[in-house]
Design goal:
- The protein is α/β, with parallel strands linked by helices and 354 residues long.
- It is built from 14 helices and twelve strands.
- The chain has a six-stranded mixed β-sheet, with helices on both faces. A three-stranded mixed β-sheet has the order 3-9-8, sandwiched between helices.
- Helix 1 crosses helix 10.
- The longest helix is centred in the middle third of the chain and has 32 residues.
- The model has no long low-confidence stretch (mean pLDDT 92).
Length: 354
């Protein structure tokens, strides 16, 4: 999974990056050309418990690659879309300012997350429009020159539809595109077709007081969370006991890091299944609705190609009964075929032959 932190300059993207990754990337009023990149382990407590039960040689958590993109070097109210890495993201995390800052207050005014969201979505729509129109012009030119095929004629129709959607100021993620239409434009990696989630970056005075704002975002179709980025970043330098005390005093029961990861899984429709042995306990990320054969392919392509069956039980049953032996006695271990839809928390043993 690749997540991109984007937003207008000096809104706390790098602060959120540090909170999410535990890094200490430089923040503040300076210009940088390259994004910050880090890999984050998804510390699923179920994996930890499975590791305690099976005592494997190795424990492997799922990972998320997080990319913190710089803003425009010249404009405090503009984003940059020139990074090729932005095109490859699974989801965009929009970091919106909800904190006081003397410089920003004087130059652009008080925090206004809704206005920032509108500005960012507008910039992404314009960017996608430029890409789609440029490609449409090229396709039409080829058709005029007599380079005709069923493929480029269909591409012209799809691009015309895309341009009309964008002209209506609608993100492509909200449009009802057919799977074959999405396939045509997939290579262009348009930004408004990507899943979006919102991080409201609040100061300590505003944290927990944004219920109405969160509801507005929800009504607009966005998943959103409220965090105190600067506060949690400062906690990274403290001893764990001291950090826990400050979190308690602020009424923070779930770390921003965990809230962001949980939201990403919800927005992208991802779930986890596990493989276990005395060699390795491992978490795997798949899309909700994937079947057992597709899940096997996440482990290795040979497993998907030569899939025979999956022996399966659920994590919750293992915790309830305490061991695989007890699960067998209770009839809780099942044999499933390739069409079995994997559930979040399933433990799978894939049988295959190639």
């Amino acid at each position: 999974m690749q997540l991109g932190l984007i937003g207008l300059p000096n809104r706390g993207k790098t602060t959120v990056f540090n909170v999410l990754t535990g890094f200490n990337a430089q923040t503040g009023y300076f210009h940088k050309n390259e994004p910050n990149i880090a890999v984050v382990e998804v510390l699923d407590p179920r994996v930890t418990t499975l590791s305690e039960l099976y005592k494997p040689q190795k424990t492997t958590y799922s990972i998320i690659e997080v990319i913190d993109f710089p803003g425009d070097e010249e404009e405090t109210q503009k984003m940059r879309f020139d990074s090729p890495q932005m095109k490859q993201l699974d989801a965009l995390c929009l970091v919106l300012r909800n904190f006081d800052d003397q410089v920003l207050n004087q130059s652009i005014g008080e925090p206004d997350p809704l206005k920032e969201l509108q500005e960012i979505e507008s910039e992404m729509l314009i960017n996608d429009m430029q890409v789609a129109e440029k490609r449409l012009d090229k396709v039409r030119l080829n058709l005029q020159r007599g380079v005709r095929s069923a493929e480029n004629q269909y591409e012209e129709k799809v691009l015309e539809k895309v341009v009309n959607i964008l002209n209506a100021e609608k993100p492509l993620r909200t449009a009802e595109l057919l799977p074959e239409e999405e396939k045509v434009i997939r290579g262009f990696q348009l930004l408004t077709i990507k899943q979006v989630m919102i991080i409201i970056n609040s100061d300590e005075n505003r944290l927990g007081k944004n219920t109405n704002l969160l509801e507005q975002f929800h009504q607009m179709g966005y998943e959103a969370i409220d965090i105190a980025g600067k506060f949690e970043m400062e906690l990274l330098s403290l001893e764990p006991d001291d950090a826990e005390l400050f979190l308690y005093e602020m009424g923070i029961s779930v770390l921003a890091r965990d809230k962001i990861i949980q939201m990403a899984y919800r927005v992208l429709g991802y779930i986890s299944f596990f493989t276990v042995s005395n060699k390795e306990v491992r978490s795997w990320t798949i899309t909700k609705g994937d079947n057992a054969q597709e899940a096997a392919g996440k482990i290795h392509s040979d497993m998907e190609r030569g899939f025979i069956r999956a022996e399966c039980f659920h994590y919750n049953d293992l915790i309830e009964y305490g061991s695989e032996k007890a699960l067998k006695e209770k009839g809780k271990i099942r044999v499933e075929g390739k069409s079995y839809i994997v559930n979040d928390g399933d433990v799978l043993f894939i049988r295959f032959s190639v």
